[in-house]
Amino acid sequence: MKFLLIASSFSEMVDQFGLHTEAFVAHFIAFVILAAVVVLFGIKPVMRQLEERRHRIEEGEAMHARSERELAEVQERSAGIVDEAHSQAKEELEHARQLAENLHNERMAKAENDARTILHNAHQQAEIDTRRQEEALREQFANLLAQATQQVTGKVLTEEDHRIINAEAINHLP
Length: 174
Fold this sequence. Notes:
- The chain is mostly helical.
- It has one domain.
- 94% of the residues lie in helices and 0% in strands.
- Helix 2 (21-153) crosses helix 3 (159-172).
């Protein structure tokens, strides 16, 4: 009974609102077709493009993370290379300083040796010159003494007399 009551009220409502079954079914089928077309040709391609874009963004983020890791590795390696180059430069600079110091010491030793040789040669030459001058002075002194003796005695001295006077005068000189 209730079913009849509901059916009669439904039929009254249909008449009151102007609901026609054939038009309703036709509109419902058109709606379903339109919804299927929108889903197939509108929503699915858009969803596919959104999924592709999400996938590309994930790949880009992965590439970005990989690039950051590689950059950090490259920076670490370059810092190591710079540190190693700095250490090598210090070692080479210290080696160059040591070589320069050794060369300086060698040159100073050679210069000192050359100076000693020059001084020794100069002393020897001075001694030789001093002896020559002493000999020349002794000879001049002996000649002057012989001339003075000749003038004092008034006698002309022979060569033998000159030698004797010269020998005695030279023996008495310091």
